[in-house]
Amino acid sequence: MRARAVRSRAALRARPGSRAASPEASLARSENSLYLSIQAVKRKHKLERLGIALYDSETRMQWSYNGDAFFHAASTMKLAVLVGVFRQVFRKELELGAPVHVRNRFSSLIEDEAFSLDLDREASPEVAGRLGKTMSVKDLAYQMITTSSNLATNLLIDLVTIGVIQKALDELRVQGIEVLRGAFAAGKNNMVTAHGLLRLLRLISDGRVYSPEISAELLEILLDQRHKSGIPAGLPGGAHVAHKTGNISTVHHDAGIVYIGKRRPYAAVILTQSAAGVGSNMAVAEVSRQIYSALASLSQSELDRREPGGQAG
Predict the structure, then answer these.
(1) Shortest CA distance to 71 belongs to which of 215, 299, 284?
(2) What's the whole-model pTM score?
(3) Which CATH code for domain 1-9+20-69+193-313?
(4) Could you give the percent of the chain with pLDDT greater than 90?
């Protein structure tokens, strides 16, 4: 298994005469502690595979574990669909208020074979209840993310097309996210890496998805996520997370931007895979808790260095 930690050179530079632990030593301890903690979580929850990518804008710490490994995306791929939709909005080729006919018949990637969704398993009664009527692009995007509506997702994919979604990812230089549709019968799935999702989250957090205004709209939707048993469950009260979950029988994921108090946000992606019926979001929550603990410890060590007893001379 691979783990990697990186910090900016400026942040790592120790001042001469420091009586407190150097930034390098603090970072090494945090990284090692995090690595050992996630190994324990992996064993405890009998995870077959685990992928993590992290960037903290407060401490400028980057850390990953199997960050380039591909996982079944589950619903995390809806982040890419969301960006594809807002690309068209930014280019004024689509209006958020435009009506979309709600139907349940779509064409798959394989020879345009038609398929329908099982509406008994649809996550959003609101979208299912509009069958035969219309919903706005904005409402469909909101339901796709906050309730993880598959019906809304397929309607939006039809509207903007897979090609446009991929073009958005290419324009933003996001690698490690592969979006397909209706190709399950051919043994194909949407796939993601922790690094790919982290890149997308950082662009959103930094206001660099087409414009600060577009990025702010994406954040507003992601902050309203209703499924909170992943990353948020491992955080202290008062934390706010702009995130997208992804859960099926064998994978449980969460990818989000975490806001806690006055500290700068951090972005974290946690991808897990286990045997059917074995895994749960508890593993994601525990990894989230370990990430927060490592960052909190690292932040405290920075504060200690600046206090009178640990100030560099």
Answers:
(1) 284
(2) 0.89
(3) 3.40.710.10
(4) 75
